[in-house]
TrEMBL record:
Compositional bias ranges of the Basic and acidic residues kind: 25-34, 41-71
Protein name per Swiss-Prot or TrEMBL: Exosome complex component Csl4
PANTHER family attached to this UniProt entry: 3'-5' EXORIBONUCLEASE CSL4-RELATED, EXOSOME COMPLEX COMPONENT CSL4
Oligomer status and interactors: Component of the archaeal exosome complex. Forms a trimer of Rrp4 and/or Csl4 subunits. The trimer associates with an hexameric ring-like arrangement composed of 3 Rrp41-Rrp42 heterodimers. Interacts with DnaG.
NCBIfam families associated with the record: PRK09521.1
Database matches in PROSITE patterns: S1
GO cellular component: cytoplasm; exosome (RNase complex)
Ranges for domain S1 motif: 135-213
Keyword check for Zinc: yes
UniProt record, GO biological process: RNA catabolic process; RNA processing
KW Cytoplasm (keyword) present: yes
Amino acid sequence: MKLRGIIIRIRNKKKATRRKIKGSSKKDEKEENQNPKTKGQQKEKREAREKNTENLKKEKPQKHLKEEAEKHIEEQFVLPGDIVGTNEEYEAGEGTYTLRGNIYSTRTGNVEIDRKKRSVSVRATSELPPVIKKDDIVVGNVVNVRDSMALVQIAAIKGHGEREVNNPGIAAIHISNIKEDYVKNIANELALMDVVKAKVIDIDSMRLSIAAKELGVMSAVCGRCGEALAIEEGKLKCPACGRIEKRKLSADYGTGII
């Protein structure tokens, strides 16, 4: 019987100890809440959490704005043959071509530079492009020069402003349609990358003529250094290297007037 009494007293002692510990925990919490220093620390932690939450909310729109900035498109109006960038900066996109490290426009319109994709293109502004007809005056780039003809990529039609031509394709200027006089060497009249103003004389075979005074090369670049050629003392001269070249010039050379 003595042993049983001892065991009961030990169990009761353990329960009392547990109740004491539990009670002391609540008392400590109460004291902490009443302690001004502890309350200040809790307030600082709460304010820090709220501040972090606000910062996270702000980061999302800032990230969105950064993505939009990367997609930002710059616009600039250009004519066929204008330089719109270099291969070191961008990749050539729609409405452009590459030559000697430079990217040129093949059409009249607005330059689009996509910083995210690192590409440059030229976009025409018209949704309803005009159709080429006989006797139209067109502007285009010389993309190939052969023994008896030059090939031109048509970019615009006079009288239709910035509107892109509907499926222009490649037109040809035969050596017999360069001047009214006899032309011995076509290389003295036209060169690669020249911007020409020409008249459509045959719509079926897409043949052009630059024989008239107001027709011919409107802008050209130096075959040696690639700089734009300027008229100086009646000659076509490179202002950078001094090279003199020959072309069948339009009366509007260098003016940009179609």
